[in-house]
Each structure stands twice: as structure tokens, then as C-alpha cells.
UniProtKB/TrEMBL annotation:
SUPFAM superfamilies: Acyl-CoA N-acyltransferases (Nat). Transmembrane segments: none annotated. GO terms for molecular function: acyltransferase activity, transferring groups other than amino-acyl groups. Pfam families: Acetyltransf_1. This is Acetyltransferase (GNAT) domain-containing protein. InterPro entries: Acyl_CoA_acyltransferase, GNAT_dom, Trichothecene_AcTrans. Keywords: Transferase. Residues 8-210 form the N-acetyltransferase domain.
């Protein structure tokens, strides 16, 4: 069951919100098993994730949609995906500039995510973060509910990758179905691809089959 907070207003973020959202995203993502794997040196993590999300926020504002709460305590970066992802010829340069010597780990995650990505039109939740001080207080659910209302009006499916069992269970409460986990390396952290299908007669469509490219990679 999902508890919906009525005291949080969700709106689309603008460039003026970046100074407040950037440290929140960097702090939220610089802890946990994924951060430890991607940036093994603890002293570097916050700086690397600050650079990474400076770049990701710029991409989200330019090519997608960034949602935030009225108090800037959470943010979600969404993209519309067609069957073929749009080319970003400068992505490697931007990622290298943002993450420095840790770029290979981030590229490995990108390749894994892209290989598993469904090849049909959908909305893609690339990132969602909540300020650590207010986590588990319904901020993430408010962001998801706001986006899902618009997606349900179009009956458009949604896709994401959950980075831990706690988040996976939250997304499941919001109607997502989990697929088999994937790992960037044999010792890397697991991620769960998750799909929120179209409604058909009150029932959500099942997770689409893996794309052929992923089957070749395995």
C-alpha cells in the first residue's frame, strides 16, 4: 500500500533549482554499495558524484524532465524513450569531465543499462533521489505518484533500474514488476530492471522480453 502525502507539491524543476538540487543528489547517491563500487576511494565519492550529477541535471533539463518538490527535498529525472535511444555524441567527453579516473565504471553501468533497456516507447526514470534527512517520509512516493498520474493519462509504460532491495520494494508498491537482476561485473552490485506496464482492462501488461542485444551480451 502506498501512502500519499498531501503536504508536498511536485513541480517541474528549472535551471534556477540546480544549486539546491545538486548537493542533495550528490549526497543521496554517494553512499551505499553502488557508490562504493563505482568510486572505491571514500574521500573521492562526494566530489565525483557532485560532478556526475552536475552533468546529469544539465542533460535532464535539456533533453528530459526534472521533477522536484516545493521544498527541493527530492528530485526525479525522466526521459521519453522511443524504440531507438537518441544519440549523444558528446556523452563520453561529458562523462569523463564529470567523473575523471572513475569514468570506466560509469561507462560500464551505462552499457549494461542500455543493453537491458526495453525497445518500445516508454518513460524512463533515470534517477530519483531524496535528501537523506527526510528519507522514508513519502517524498519519493510523492514524486512517483505525480509522474504516474501523467503517464496513466496517456497509458504509457515506465521503466527504471532499482539499485537495492528497499528501493525495489518501493517501486513494486507503485505498480512496477521486477525482472531478473543484472550486475556490471561478477563482483559488482546488483540492479533490478523494473517495468510498469500499460493498463488493459485494469491489469498491467507484463515485463517485455529482453532485447536481443542483451541476450548476445550474456
Amino acid at each position: 500500500m502506498v501512502t500519499i502525502r498531501t503536504d508536498l507539491t511536485v513541480r517541474e524543476a528549472t535551471a534556477d533549482d540546480v544549486p539546491a538540487l545538486l548537493p542533495m543528489l550528490a549526497e543521496a547517491f554517494s553512499t551505499g554499495t553502488v557508490a562504493e563500487w563505482a568510486v572505491p576511494e571514500p574521500a573521492d565519492r562526494l566530489e565525483v558524484f557532485t560532478g556526475y550529477f552536475r552533468y546529469m541535471l544539465a542533460l535532464g533539463l535539456r533533453h528530459g524532465r526534472v521533477d522536484t518538490t516545493h521544498d527541493l527535498s527530492g528530485a526525479a529525472i525522466w526521459y521519453r524513450r522511443d524504440e531507438t535511444p537518441p544519440p549523444h555524441p558528446d556523452h563520453l567527453y561529458g562523462l569523463e569531465e564529470a567523473t575523471g579516473r572513475y569514468t570506466p565504471k560509469f561507462l560500464l553501468l551505462d552499457a549494461m543499462f542500455e543493453a537491458r533497456h526495453p525497445r518500445l516507447p516508454h518513460a524512463y526514470l533515470a534517477y530519483v533521489a531524496v535528501a537523506p534527512a527526510v528519507q522514508s517520509r513519502g517524498v519519493g512516493s510523492a514524486l512517483l505518484t505525480h509522474a504516474h498520474e501523467a503517464l496513466d493519462a496517456e497509458n504509457l509504460p515506465a521503466y527504471l533500474e532499482a539499485s537495492n532491495p528497499r528501493n525495489r520494494d518501493l517501486y513494486a508498491r507503485h505498480g512496477y514488476e521486477s525482472g531478473p537482476p543484472m550486475q556490471p561485473t561478477s563482483s559488482g552490485p546488483p540492479f533490478w530492471p523494473m517495468w510498469r506496464g500499460q493498463l488493459n482492462g485494469g491489469v498491467r501488461a507484463s515485463f517485455p522480453p529482453p532485447n536481443p542485444y542483451y541476450r548476445r551480451l550474456r
